[in-house]
Amino acid sequence: MGVTTYNQEFTTTVAPARMFKAFILDSHNLMPKLMPQSIKSIEFIEGDGGVGSIKKTTFHEGSHFKYLKHKIDALEAENCSCKYSLIEGDVLGDKLESISYEVKFESTDGGSVCKMTSHYHTKGDFELKEEDIKDGKDKAMGMYKIVEEYLLANPNVYCEAKCAC
């Protein structure tokens, strides 16, 4: 088994605590509302959203994928950071064992930057190339932009969210 690591950064004018609340803490409620054409539901099948919880995302019939499961490995809301792993689902295919993510939102002048590190754990001797994960990276950027646009259009949503970032 090999591990391939990729880093991404996204910037926004939205405060880090609001982005973290929307993208991480409340994604199970927000994402199906913002992307009803893609996401049928997101539910906790173990736990309540804290460390060790498992969240299942179910996609609509006819979608390229049926479902996926994420496990929350670490959660520091006060620092706007989270670690989680994609542990199950047809999105992994026959070449990936799992994908682990480290996400941190940091303050910038007038907004925030999201720093994401993805660790792709491959099966056997398979070597992952950047073009193999381009679609997933593009989808992550698309989701990020949808959340950003929603928060910019709705400045009172998650305005109570606070963090030390």
The SS-based structural class is alpha+beta
Q: Give the beta-strand count.
A: 7
What is the rounded distance between the termini?
Answer: 35 Å
Low-pLDDT regions: none
Helix run count:
3
Q: Strand arrangement, largest sheet? A: 1-7-6-5-4-3-2
Please provide the ordered H/E string of secondary-structure elements.
EHHEEEEEEH
Mean pLDDT: 91
Strand content: 35-45%
* Residues in helices, as a percent range: 25-40%
Indicate the radius of gyration in whole angstroms: 16 Å
Please state the overall shape, judged from the principal axes of the Cα atoms: globular
Biggest β-sheet description: 7 strands, antiparallel
Describe the structure.
By secondary structure, the protein is α+β, with helices and mostly antiparallel strands. Helices cover 25% and strands 41% of the residues. The protein has a 7-stranded antiparallel beta sheet with strand order 1-7-6-5-4-3-2. It is globular, with a radius of gyration of 16 Å. The model has no long low-confidence stretch (mean pLDDT 91). One of its GO terms (molecular function) is abscisic acid binding.
